[in-house]
Amino acid sequence: MFSFPGLAQYMTEMDRITDKILHELARDGRISNLELAERVGLSPSACLRRVQDLEKRGVITGYRARFDPVQMGRSFLVYVTVGLSEHTKAAQDDFEQAMSRAAEVTECHNVAGAFEYLLRVEVENLAAYKRFHTDTLGTVPHVRSITSYMVMGTSKDARG
Fold this sequence. Notes:
By secondary structure, this protein is of the alpha+beta class. It has helices at residues 15-27, 33-40, 44-56, 89-101, 126-136; strands spanning 76-84, 105-110, 117-123, 143-150.
């Protein structure tokens, strides 16, 4: 099941129901309130109140559509670590702006550790990744190192 920090003060004796609601919505954000209520064991009105309360409190921040990466021409997934040669705010801002313009980059995380950034890159195939690697990442100032991890298969992906 899911664990959501910050809910402790909100949780009542019905914390398992809240967890079930969040789990079901993460699986299918378009589930009807009637179906959701049946799955979590609440009346439809009680279920709707709880979902609305979770939205109001900012626990649920939105709903998303998921796309088939093959249909979208983005079935080649690569995680990329990037090290910068300068550790200045300006170098980070420049890099982040360049990544925000790169359609291939679906996630860009500034992380602590041996490198500064972790990217999720989705493209059509290896040739498309090579173009991104050379023409985009390879031209961004202050990029010192690039390490690519091609995804061979995915056994779990709980992102909404």
